[in-house]
Design brief:
By secondary structure, the chain is mainly beta. Helices cover 11% and strands 54% of the residues. The chain contains one helix and 15 strands. The chain is globular and about 50 Å long.
């Protein structure tokens, strides 16, 4: 089967699943919110790893369904522009979020990610739990991922972020700064240890019904566990809601 036909089959199956989900959700709860985005990234950096050869860019669309009950469903794709289909990706995430009763101001999320690679008929599955304080100074968060399929291991990520006002009266959006540290216990065959230290900056511009978010990012890979070099990469995302 050709690459195009495999992707058409995968996208068709995903569209059917989303249609069934949307119809079921609509019958159960009419207040479902639907949003999406399409991003271009200069490199596909994932947990410190540069997943596409020769630093090639990728297109990464995303579609989100969320309900006031706390449930959410996401479909995310990555289509490499290098012509090599082996790491083209189609992922599905189901999650549930709520406020913590034990820790005031904290929110937690539990979820499951189903990773698929349609062109090579490969897949993996990963469960995760997140604890975050979105309204606290630096908005700290911690997520632990456990891949119990092909990835076979645990990855933990701690992050912080802060919006810096630039010039609200002049219509200049805030500068969003973020940083994070990832640790792998050997997931996907990496040497155990700190796999990535991330630094990012982005701004969000409103253009009618669309949100345009350019970003600049830098990843440090201690011990060359995830990558043999530290790398800059950039992205531009366009978000919208239905």
């Amino acid at each position: 089967m050709s690459r195009k036909r495999k992707w058409m089959k995968a996208v068709g199956a995903a569209a059917m699943a989303l249609t069934v989900l949307a119809m079921s959700a609509g019958a159960a709860r009419a207040e479902a919110d639907v949003s999406g985005s399409v991003a271009w990234v200069s490199k596909y950096i994932w947990r410190g790893q540069d997943l596409l050869a020769d630093n090639e860019p990728a297109i990464q669309p995303s579609l989100d369904f969320s309900w006031s009950s706390g449930w959410a469903f996401n479909m995310w794709m990555s289509y490499g522009l290098d012509g090599d289909s082996e790491l083209d990706e189609l992922d599905y995430t189901l999650s549930y979020s709520a406020s913590s009763k034990l820790m005031p101001g904290a929110e937690w999320t539990v979820g499951h990610i189903y990773y698929t690679f349609p062109s090579i008929a490969d897949e993996s599955q990963e469960s995760f739990v997140t604890l975050e304080w979105p309204d606290a100074f630096l908005s700290p968060s911690m997520t632990v991922y456990s891949d119990w399929d092909a990835g076979d291991g645990v990855y933990a990520y701690a992050g912080i972020s802060r919006d810096i006002p630039i010039g609200g009266e002049a219509g200049i959006p805030a500068l969003s700064l973020s940083a994070g540290l990832g640790y792998s216990d050997g997931q996907w065959g990496l040497e155990p240890g700190v796999s990535n230290i991330d630094i990012g900056a982005s701004m969000s511009f409103q253009a009618g019904d669309f949100e345009i978010v350019p970003s600049l990012n830098y990843v440090i890979t201690p011990g060359d566990r995830a990558n043999t070099e530290n790398e800059f990469w950039a992205g531009v995302g366009i978000g919208f809601s239905f």
